[in-house]
Amino acid sequence: MVKKIKRSDGRAPDELRKPYIIKAGVVKRAQGSALVQSGKTIVIAAVYGPKKVIPKHLEDRDKAILRCRYNMITFSVKDRKKPGPDKRSVEISKVIANALSRVVMLEEYPRTLIDVDLEVIQADAGTRVAALTAASVALADAGIAMKDLMPAVAAGRANGQILLDLTKEEEDAEDAVDMPFAYIPSTGEITLLQMDGIVDLNEIKKMIDLAKKGAQQIYELQVKALKERYAALATLSEVVK
Amino acid sequence: MYLLKRKKGDYMEDKNMEIVYPGSVIIDSLDVIPGQNVYRVGSKVISKRVGIVVKKGSIINVVPLNGVYIPKVGDFVIGEIVDIGVSFWVVDINSPYDAYLGIYDTKDFIEKESDLADYYDVGDLIFAKISKVTRTKFVNVTLKDPQAKKLGKGMVINVTPSRVPRIIGKGGSMIKLIKERTNTRIYVGQNGAIWISGENMEIAAEAIFYVEEHSVVKGLTEKVAELLDKRLGDANGKKDKEE
Lengths: 241, 243
Prior knowledge:
By secondary structure, chain A is α+β, with helices and mostly antiparallel strands. Chain A has helices spanning 87-100, 127-141, 168-171, 201-231; strands at residues 20-24, 32-38, 41-52, 65-72, 112-122, 152-158, 161-164, 177-184, 189-193.
């Protein structure tokens, strides 16, 4: 049972950040795109493809290649971030690509490449889970065959409390532990679970349970975003003047 | 003029127009057969893509609302010659996969040791039929079909391939309306490329984009007719003024 305490932004321990917004179809020139805003964290995902693989020797004759590029914009954090890939962004790109390849039906598109570009516009902790949430909506928006949508959320501990969706402020606490988490709701398969710090087993179990609840809420928002995007197709707008 | 033949019951204009998304359970029953863009887990039939459910007897299909063109045998496509080999042409068919047109797949008699560029050069447009697709998606097209041909001067626009059936309409009604009103020649490829030639090309293109944007709506033909009347009226008014 989660104890009732007040967090610095007035949320309950098992509550997502406010506002939590998901929008599909924000980048016009991309095949599919999505924006996720979780509190002060904003991420835009854009999907290009399936397209031809260049250079050609990289292509796989049995399935598509999923390539992710996670990038933080220079002005996304307090101190200017040096542009270009670094150790952290290479790692995050890789774990996101691994998680996504569990839901995307890559074998339907042999000899192709699917590019997923993730741009962090504003960072306030939880960027990799926001990026993953956005990426799965963008892939669905691009019309790529998928088993399911994949919500992602972070759970963790700060000041002795188990919390959902930590902010940067909470993450900076002395005993803070942050655990990004992604899973497939229909199968219950966990596709991303990272953590550093010292926690006991009970706390991890609590964190996973909490994250699953949070992810379920995000899943509903993802569905809503996709429905909103395509509902416009079913309504007749006025004939342009 | 060419009209694409459509199979019965292929329409998006179905009574059941709920939008499904990847992972949404369409039906939980063993009496149905999963068709296109769906998969089965246990007794559940689940959608793979964002689209609209269309039931054909006991087969459940999802008609996608977006996505790239994946070649299928029997489709007619509009392609551009992008490269010439020793005995074949490479055709860009608006898809992740290039198509190949062999010398035996053309209507022309190709003389020995002649230059293939004399028959079809880079940049030429063709309206061809997909004759073969392998498991790893190597694609062959053919021009040996009464409807296939080389396309001349005109404008090519690209639309979302999954919305092409709506642009053609029931028995070709929509495209026929646009062609007759605007006095244009239009060829529609299943790959989403549409070739237009004639005096009111821009108006025809606008009408096609309008259909693409509202492809799920019922009673679209009347709206398109209204749009065409308005645009053609404006165009004629302008002409009269100039004279």
